[in-house]
Amino acid sequence: MLRPRAQGDDGDHATAYDVLAGGSVVGRASVAVGDDGSGVLSWRVDPAHGRRGIGSRALRLLVDWSLTETGQGGLGLGRVSARVAGDNGPALRTATRAGLRREGVARLGPDADGDSREEVLLGRVSDDPPLSDPSSFRTLLNSFLPRKRAIAQMLVRDEQGRVLMCQLTYKRDWDLPGGVVEVGESPRDAVTRELEEELGLTVPAGRLLLTDWLPPWSGWDDALCLVFDGGTMPADTVTRIVKQEREIRDAQFLTPALVRARATDFTARRVEAALEGDRGYTESGR
Prior knowledge:
GNAT_dom; Nucleoside Triphosphate Pyrophosphohydrolase; 286 residues; five-stranded mixed sheet
């Protein structure tokens, strides 16, 4: 499957290989070893031999050999990595099937046509579980499957039915109190934490009133917003609020009409849907 290339081809002959299939050379693969004990992978399979798994099998052999200890005949590297163009689906699949986890995306400058470009960084380290381990496959999937942002908000009302709204420092319009759910955190815990951090209020989250999908908007990716019931609080609660100055400019109980006037249209729709209490799921408040 792999055969050392001749001296002078692709740099150091000890790290460059021909990819063989049926006794013929159908591509090449190499690992360039750095001074830090890591290797950078590159590979190519002729298009006529694509979609047969040849590239992923060859790359997996190269990855395994690179991470195998020198006493067992390998290179003994601590890490191997590769950079793949974000729009190169076949190469991304090859790298993933060879056991490389997706680690991040690097934005590059525009190409000759003025189009923006991205490179996906993939890597594997020597103490990653072997691919035969089910947890390794799950971790691989987890590294490249979509990760949708979650936002948890609280609907708190006063005795007059007005809604607690916040004016944020980083946008002009008003919104429900809450924020982004952190990795590994439950949405219910997140919204309670956000009210404590941003307003100095301890309000246990009640039942889920609404799940609202937010489409991409003004530089934000899409997200799921979960609105929890915060119950009813006295109108003078706002006098006890301790604002986190970095994020909160003001907080007031607003009538639905004022919410409509001060919030974006989709936020106002979300508040109105949450007030109805039986909408279940909406998309941008609809």
